[in-house]
């Protein structure tokens, strides 16, 4: 499967996700600079990586969400292209409006950087088919703005529609209802604060992240 990784000034997990995608798909991803106006053809997945795009100024992801290439990402997502945003990529996706809610400063006001237990809320999506619903997995986080917020009506709606992909097993950053990852209504866009690309081989301490990419590859094949 051909994939693309969007690179913004300040991205710092673009190589990590590229390595993970190549390990699973066997194909080197196209690295697409934020100033591009078009995406490569024949893609099966677009990844928005973690990092500190544009220095996290204004709000994390707010400036990146207005970069030229993101217009093309939104158009592709609207046509059903699978898009994953990890950490800063999740922040960018909420800033585009492709995903509901916002990521605010962690409730403890600290940068949280450690492995965290997550529960898989819904394994019925292309991104979570490698897991079982209710399963507990371990994936690392590294962020200062991971405190997921949405109003109660939105939270009820996304929960009701099965759009919570992952939850923290315990509160780590103040996120509403411990939400760690959300899907769009059509199910082709996932945003998550934890970093599955940092848990793809035994040397990382486990392979729970790899299962996301393997499940996705199988689901879209
Ligand atoms: N690892 C990351 O992507 C960091 C995301 C973000 N800029 C934050 O610290 O909240």
TrEMBL record:
SMART domains: GATase_5
GO cellular component terms, A-Z: cytoplasm
EC number: 6.3.5.3, 3.5.1.2
Pathway participation: Purine metabolism; IMP biosynthesis via de novo pathway; 5-amino-1-(5-phospho-D-ribosyl)imidazole from N(2)-formyl-N(1)-(5-phospho-D-ribosyl)glycinamide: step 1/2
Record-linked CDD domains: GATase1_FGAR_AT
A Pfam family annotated for this UniProt entry: GATase_5
Chemical reaction(s) catalysed: L-glutamine + H2O = L-glutamate + NH4(+); N(2)-formyl-N(1)-(5-phospho-beta-D-ribosyl)glycinamide + L-glutamine + ATP + H2O = 2-formamido-N(1)-(5-O-phospho-beta-D-ribosyl)acetamidine + L-glutamate + ADP + phosphate + H(+)
Active-site residues, record numbering mapped to chain: 87 (nucleophile), 195, 197
InterPro entries for the chain: Class_I_gatase-like, PRibForGlyAmidine_synth_PurQ
Role according to the record: Part of the phosphoribosylformylglycinamidine synthase complex involved in the purines biosynthetic pathway. Catalyzes the ATP-dependent conversion of formylglycinamide ribonucleotide (FGAR) and glutamine to yield formylglycinamidine ribonucleotide (FGAM) and glutamate. The FGAM synthase complex is composed of three subunits. PurQ produces an ammonia molecule by converting glutamine to glutamate. PurL transfers the ammonia molecule to FGAR to form FGAM in an ATP-dependent manner.
NCBIfam families: FGAM_synth_I (TIGR01737), PRK03619.1 (NF002957)
Protein name (database record): Phosphoribosylformylglycinamidine synthase subunit PurQ
Source organism of this protein record: Sphingomonas kyeonggiensis
Lineage, top ranks: Bacteria, Pseudomonadati, Pseudomonadota, Alphaproteobacteria, Sphingomonadales
């Amino acid at each position: 499967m051909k994939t693309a990784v969007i690179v913004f000034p300040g991205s710092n997990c673009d190589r990590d996700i590229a390595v993970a995608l190549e390990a699973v798909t066997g194909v080197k991803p196209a690295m697409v600079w934020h100033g591009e106006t078009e995406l490569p053809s024949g893609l099966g997945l677009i990844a928005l990586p973690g990092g500190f795009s544009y220095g996290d100024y204004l709000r994390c992801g707010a400036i990146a969400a207005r970069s030229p290439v993101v217009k093309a990402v939104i158009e592709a997502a609207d046509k059903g292209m699978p898009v994953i945003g990890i950490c800063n990529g999740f922040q960018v996706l909420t800033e585009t409006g492709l995903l509901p809610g916002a990521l605010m400063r962690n409730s403890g006001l600290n940068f949280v950087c450690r492995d965290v237990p997550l529960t898989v809320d819904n394994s019925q999506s292309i991104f979570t088919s490698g897991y079982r619903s209710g399963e507990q997995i371990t994936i690392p986080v590294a962020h200062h703005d991971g405190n997921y917020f949405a109003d109660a009506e939105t939270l009820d709606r996304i929960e009701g529609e099965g759009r919570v992909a992952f939850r923290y097993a315990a509160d780590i950053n103040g996120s509403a209802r411990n939400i760690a990852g959300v899907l769009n209504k059509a199910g082709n866009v996932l945003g998550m604060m934890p970093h599955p690309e940092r848990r793809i081989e035994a040397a990382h301490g486990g392979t729970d992240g790899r299962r996301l990419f393997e499940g996705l590859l199988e689901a879209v094949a």
